[in-house]
Amino acid sequence: MKKTDTIAAIATALGESGIGIIRISGEDAIGIADKIFSGSKSLREVDSHTINYGHVYFGDEIIDEVLIMLMKAPRTFTGEDTVEINCHGGILILEKVLHAVLKSGARPALPGEFTKRAFLNGKMDLSQAEAVIDIIEAKNDLALKAGIRQLSGALTENIKTIRAKILEQIAFIEAALDDPEHYSLDGYSVKLRKIVKKLITRIEYLQKSFKDGSIIREGINTVIIGKPNAGKSSILNLLSRSDRAIVTDIAGTTRDTLTENIKLSGISLNITDTAGIRETDDIVESIGVKKAIEASNNADLNLVVIDGLLPIDSEDISLLESVKDKQAIILINKSDKELKVSVDDIRKYSDKEVIIFSAKDNTGVDELENMIKAKFISNEINFNDQIIITNIRHQEIINEAMESLEMCLSSIDEGYEEDFFTIDLLNAYEALGEIIGETVDDDVVNEIFSKFCMGK
Ligand code: GDP
Prior knowledge:
- The protein is of the alpha/beta class.
- It contains 15 helices and 13 strands.
- InterPro entries: G_TrmE, GTP-bd, GTP-bd_TrmE_N, GTPase_MnmE, MnmE_dom2, MnmE_helical, P-loop_NTPase, Small_GTP-bd.
């Protein structure tokens, strides 16, 4: 095996904390750590996968009292000998320990280099390495679960199965063209058509999952619209349980738009509160109104707030009509008092779902949560048997593979020669290989790992 550099980095977030970890990986990891460590035994003599108490020195100076985790290749994250020094979590201590490690022969790791080594040493494929970033960046429970599932190799297995089926057909066509005496292509196109159809169904399933995937990862872009004083800011406050939005009695005080990320039953909502959408002469406010309409047009979901204490008026009607072709939920707010607006009143102008709501006493929040979930997550996501595509790179590749398979299908239907099928099948095969990193360019690999944080 080629000798590689030994790399080291601070693997935990910089800041004051209970512990901080320096990670060292490479052929000399144990020797380098041993040079600066003093414990009851030399690290060269201890067993793999043990934790060892002692002190780290720089020259004669004790830097810290530490626990050293020692893991020998190949049963490690990177597949190389790995040492993790658990120090106290001060920035100065961590920097001093890292300095000592570097002086003893390691070099600073690049961002993502530990995970890149894991990929290059066959410990994980590219989609699993990407899952590591997703897990670190996960903002809600479902995103975390999707990441963990991808890390466990679920996507890899699925892609490998599809590729194996494609390869089988390529091999058969090649064999038949080379050796027509032993392999007959009679009636083959009918058989291939069925197989390609099935593959397309599998890929369609992955394509569909991206819709859930992007919602899980990015959140549902939601805007709250309604005329001034309907209670938009109060609802945003209630949902975000914070006081960031300004709640006031004066009509038109939410001048600009304000977006908050809110976690709701495991999914994220990026909620934008807008200035009251209405005709106005006030210049500052009219900019806000323009932004509100823009936000509403680009949103995944509109929450239309109706002031339940005032009879429905022309402003409410035009709002209800403006969301006719959009995803929307209507909230009749202020139901803690006697309402002047009924569901039937709304029905005259909109067929969207309506919730009797009160920002003041929390009425309707559960119903709203359930409704949003039902609208956006196609069915109860069960990560045991489902693969969710959350990564845009994967989505593009899957679309590309789909195009090739569809081209193959039309070549079959148009009665082309078999070697035309091979071209399309091969394109699909190679495209899918990019997801797991089998047919991927070095540039793409470098680009992916450069997105990692230091020490990962
Ligand atoms: P916005 O202009 O639509 O953002 O409305 P605000 O959230 O600023 O609320 C306007 C006024 O309505 C404030 O005085 C709130 O306290 C009041 N308000 C908001 N929600 C409710 C509610 O559910 N019940 C009652 N009774 N008053 C509410």
